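Researcher: We're teaching a course module on how sequence relates to structure. For the next exercise, students receive a sequence and then see the predicted structure as tokens, so they can try to spot secondary structure elements on their own. Here is the exercise chain.
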Amino acid sequence: MKDLQKICWIFMIALFCIGCSSSDDGGGEPDPDPDQNPNPNKTTTYEADVKAIVDRECIECHTIPLAQGAPFPMRNYQEVLTAVDRDMILRVTSNSINNVMPPAGRLPQETIDIILDWEADGFLER
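Model: And here is the predicted structure for the students to work with:
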């Protein structure tokens, strides 16, 4: 009976330790609130603000032909909206080293804020 109690205690301690372990999200700051508008005094658009970011940070892989395992192109506004529908914002704002885009590492917060502002403004083209 005492052996059964020991096994139960070990099992409960193991469950407690697993439940308290850290996640694989890089351990940094929490992801930004996607409903927050980082720059409420400006209307951010794809053409004026986001296209330059996509061209600089994404197009190397997200073009035709696709490269480095990119699943879709991001060559124009419509294709970038498809990326948005496929969790682009979550990937760009992620703190996880396994889920962040671009794969080279998280973008500077100022760049992420432009993308979040574009989201808050309704993903406007112009």
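Model: If you want an answer key for the exercise: The two ends are 74 Å apart (CA to CA). The CA atoms of residues 59 and 72 lie 10 Å apart.
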